[in-house]
Design brief:
Layout: E1 6-9, H1 27-40, E2 44-47, H2 56-65, E3 71-76, H3 83-96, E4 101-105, H4 111-116
Parallel strand pairs: 1-2, 2-3, 3-4
Helix pairs in contact: 1-2, 2-3
């Protein structure tokens, strides 16, 4: 059995102890953070899903365009994008990342989080 080391990328500087600041979609932060994961030897980066945050497909595409080896695990919540469109988006993103994409199908978080998506 092998072990993989996963990181998690956001779309701007923020954490449990650092209040969010700066632009909502900070492309320099995304690129720098993805490269830092790659240089540190992580195997994969989780790109989470939140109803009130930038689109994970685009965050992943930008991070992948600024890296060459690290793989990505994109969280996807079914039901908000038609299955055929989601499949096309995932296949396209997998091609753009040269096969570095995996998908994490999630059912959702809290009821209030689910309602924010409609």
């Amino acid at each position: 059995m092998s072990i993989q080391f996963l990181g998690m990328i956001g779309h701007r500087l923020a954490s449990e102890i650092i209040p969010a600041s700066g632009p909502l979609f900070d492309k320099n932060y995304i690129a720098d953070f993805a490269r830092a994961h790659e240089e540190a030897g992580f195997d994969r980066i989780l790109v989470g899903y939140w109803s009130d945050q930038p689109d994970g497909f685009l965050v992943t595409a930008h991070a992948a365009a600024n890296t060459s080896r690290i793989k990505f695990l994109l969280a996807h919540r079914p039901g908000f994008v038609s299955p055929t469109l989601a499949a096309r988006k995932l296949a396209s993103l997998d091609h753009l990342t040269d096969g570095r994409l995996a998908v994490h199908i999630i059912s959702g978080g809290s009821d209030s989080e689910q309602r924010r998506d409609g």
